[in-house]
Design a protein that fits this description.
Layout: H1 2-9, H2 12-19, H3 28-31, E1 47-49, E2 66-71, E3 76-81, H4 94-101, E4 110-112, E5 135-137, H5 138-148, H6 151-160, H7 164-177, H8 200-211, H9 214-221, E6 224-229, E7 232-237, H10 241-244, E8 255-263, E9 267-276, E10 279-286, H11 295-310, E11 318-319, H12 347-380
Antiparallel strand pairs: 1-3, 2-3, 2-10, 3-11, 4-5, 6-7, 8-9, 9-10
Helix pairs in contact: 1-12, 2-12, 4-7, 4-8, 5-6, 9-12
C-alpha cells in the first residue's frame, strides 16, 4: 500500500517536527485499527522459517521451548518455533499490564501507599522496594515495573486501576481485543498462577502495541534511574542484560529494550526489540533449556542477528496487522521525560517506529482530506464575499 511505503520511508520525528503535529492531538480513533490478525496456519508447531534465497541458516544451539522473530514495522513473523505454544510468561506479561494501565495515570500524580495496596505480593517476588506509607509518583512506579520488574509496584498500580481482579479482567479483555488468543491472565504481574499462559506470538503482539506508546518505549529502554526510599533515593538498574550490558552480557547493538522475566514454572523469558539499518525487530524467547548462563539473552541476541541478516530476504511465515493497539478508553496522560541516564536514548528509535507507522499514516490521511476539500472549492467556484 502507498501508506505503508510512505510510513517506511518517512523520517517520522522530522515530519512531526516540520508539520507541527502534536501527538497529543491525534484522536484515539486514529490509533485504532483492526485487532492483530492471525491468518490461517496449517501448522504452527515446530520450527518454521522461510526457505528463500539468501536467508542464512538459523543459529545453532537454540534450546528455547518457543521463540519468534518478527519485523516490528510490517508485523511479519520471519521465523518461529511453536509460535502459539501456551507457556507461563513470567514478567513478560507485564507488557500487557502496561499496555492496559499505563495510559490512565499522569506520570507526576502521587500515590501514598497503603497496606491494602501491597496485599497479596507473592512470596519470592521481584521487588523494587515500595514501602507502606511511602509516597511515589506514577513515573516512579512504572520505572519500578520496567527496570526492576517490581511486583510491589505492579500491585500499587493495579490498586489504583480498580483492584487486582479487575485489572486481570481488563488485561484479558485487552489481550482479546489485540487478537492475542493464547493468553490467559490470572496474575497481572506474571507471578506463577494456575492456568496463566501466553505464547511467543501474543507476547510479541503486546510488545509491538506497547512500543506504539512513547511512554512505554521510554520506560522499557531506561537503563538506570533513581528510585525514592526512606533514606532519599537509590539507583536502580534494568535487569534486561541485553539493555544494561551487565553480568557478562554486552549491550546489544541497537537495543531498544522491552522486558525480561523469570519464575520457577516459566524459566527465563524475554522480549527484546532492537533497531538497525532502518529495521526494527522483535524477538521473543520462552524458557531456554540449555542451562547455559545468560542463555535467554544469548539466544535472543543470536536470533536478532539472524533477523537483521534476513529481514529483506525471508518470506513471512505469519503476520500481524500493521495497526497497533486499539485506542485507549481514556485520553493518554502526559508523562515526564526520563531518558536512559547513561546518555543513550534508544527509546527514540521506538518513538520513530510509532511515528513512522501511525504518524505518517495520519499525515497522509490529512493531506488527502485537504486535497479533496481544495478540489471541491475549485469545482464550486469563488466563495461569496
Amino acid at each position: 500500500m502507498a501508506i505503508d511505503a510512505l510510513s517506511r520511508k518517512t523520517g517520522a520525528l522530522a515530519v512531526i517536527a516540520a508539520t507541527g503535529l502534536s501527538l497529543a492531538f491525534i484522536p484515539a480513533t486514529a490509533l485504532a485499527g483492526a485487532p492483530a490478525h492471525r491468518p490461517p496456519e496449517p501448522s504452527a508447531a515446530g520450527v518454521q522459517v522461510a526457505d528463500a534465497p539468501g536467508v542464512p541458516k538459523l543459529p545453532d544451539g537454540l534450546s528455547a521451548l518457543s521463540w519468534a522473530v518478527t519485523d516490528a514495522d510490517s508485523g511479519s513473523v520471519l521465523a518461529a518455533k511453536d509460535l502459539h505454544r501456551k507457556l507461563p510468561p513470567a514478567s513478560t506479561l507485564k507488557t500487557l499490564f502496561a499496555v492496559t494501565a499505563l495510559p490512565k495515570f499522569a506520570a507526576d500524580s502521587v500515590r501514598r501507599v497503603s497496606a491494602a495496596d501491597l496485599e497479596g505480593v507473592g512470596t519470592g517476588s521481584s521487588l523494587v522496594g515500595v514501602a507502606e506509607g511511602g509516597s511515589y509518583t506514577v513515573a516512579d512506579l512504572w520505572r519500578g515495573v520496567f527496570l526492576r520488574s517490581g511486583n510491589d509496584a505492579v500491585h500499587v498500580l493495579a490498586s489504583m486501576n480498580g483492584g487486582w481482579d479487575a485489572t486481570a479482567r481488563e488485561m484479558q479483555e485487552k489481550a482479546r481485543a489485540l487478537g492475542a488468543d493464547d493468553t490467559t491472565v490470572e496474575s497481572p504481574d506474571g507471578y506463577d498462577s494456575p492456568g496463566q499462559v501466553s505464547s511467543a506470538y501474543d507476547l510479541t503482539v503486546f510488545a509491538r502495541a506497547g512500543l506504539a506508546n512513547a511512554d512505554f518505549a521510554r520506560y522499557c529502554s531506561t537503563v538506570q534511574a533513581d528510585f525514592p526510599t526512606a533514606d532519599g533515593v537509590t539507583r536502580i538498574e534494568n535487569t534486561n542484560r541485553l539493555l544494561s550490558g551487565a553480568d557478562g552480557m554486552p549491550r546489544y547493538p541497537g537495543i531498544i529494550g522491552v522486558k525480561n522475566g523469570y519464575t520457577t514454572q516459566a524459566g527465563n523469558t524475554l522480549i527484546a526489540a532492537a533497531r538497525r539499518d532502518g529495521h526494527t525487530l522483535l524477538v521473543t524467547v520462552m524458557n531456554p533449556r540449555s542451562g547455559e548462563a545468560n542463555g535467554v539473552y544469548k539466544e535472543a541476541g543470536a536470533l536478532l542477528d539472524w533477523g537483521f541478516a534476513s529481514v529483506d530476504k525471508a518470506e513471512p511465515i505469519s503476520s500481524m496487522t500493521r495497526a497497533v493497539a486499539q485506542g485507549p478508553a481514556v485520553q493518554p496522560a502526559a508523562h515526564t521525560t526520563q531518558t536512559d541516564e547513561r546518555g543513550g536514548s534508544p527509546w527514540r528509535d521506538a518513538l520513530a517506529l510509532w511515528a513512522g507507522g501511525v504518524g505518517a499514516t495520519v499525515l497522509a490521511m490529512g493531506a488527502a482530506l485537504a486535497w479533496r476539500m481544495h478540489a471541491r472549492r475549485r469545482a464550486a467556484g469563488p466563495e461569496a464575499p
